[in-house]
Amino acid sequence: MRLQTDPLSGNSHKIRMMLVLIGKEYEEVTVDLPAGEHKTPTFLAKHPLGQVPALEDGAEYAYDSQGILVYLNAKYADNAHVPTDPLSQLRVAFWLSFAANEIQHSLSVRCER
Ligand SMILES: N[C@@H](CCC(=O)N[C@@H](CS)C(=O)NCC(=O)O)C(=O)O
């Protein structure tokens, strides 16, 4: 499993934390954002929006930090971190959305240099 990241990326850090939580070993690869590596055809094949994080899991590519969290929970943690009752699912979706919108567009450090 290879995690494509940037050192300043809070979205990438969410995935590092999840991988530690579920005890999954991974290799971390720093994508050279200042050089535009994330917009090359090779990287766009891994993530169509050309962003980090992206996760290579065997032949699968997972992308978008919220999407990767959901993927890892379902594939490797038997859904332990997203209870199946509707109200719990609502609350998890709320916090994923909050991270992607309110936090990313206010408090987070921009990765672009
Ligand atoms: N919704 C995406 C946002 C990812 C994102 O904004 N990544 C930044 C780094 S933190 C990035 O790759 N920026 C470069 C770009 O968008 O060109 C996620 O949650 O993964």
Give me the Rg, rounded: 14 Å
- SSE string, helices as H and strands as E: EHEHEEHH
| Relative helix content | 40-55%
> Under the CATH scheme, which class?
Alpha Beta
Count of β-strands: 4
Q: Compute the number of structural domains.
A: 1
Q: Mind telling me the CATH superfamily name?
A: Glutaredoxin
- And the CATH topology? Glutaredoxin
Distance between the termini: 27 Å
Sum up the overall morphology in one term: globular
Q: What is the level-2 CATH architecture name?
A: 3-Layer(aba) Sandwich
Bound molecules: glutathione
Characterise this structure.
The protein is an alpha+beta fold and 113 residues long. The protein has a 4-stranded mixed sheet with strand order 2-1-3-4, covered by helices on one side. It is globular. 41% of the residues lie in helices and 14% in strands. The chain contains 4 helices and 4 strands; from the N terminus they run βαβαββαα. Glutathione binds next to helix 3.
Keywords:
113 residues, alpha+beta, Glutaredoxin, 41% helix, 14% strand, binds glutathione
Q: What topology does this entry show?
A:
Blueprint: E1 2-5, H1 10-21, E2 27-30, H2 41-44, E3 54-57, E4 60-63, H3 65-76, H4 86-103
Parallel strand pairs: 1-2
Antiparallel strand pairs: 1-3, 3-4
Helix pairs in contact: 1-3
The structure holds glutathione (GSH).
Q: Brief description of this entry?
A:
By secondary structure, the protein is of the alpha+beta class.
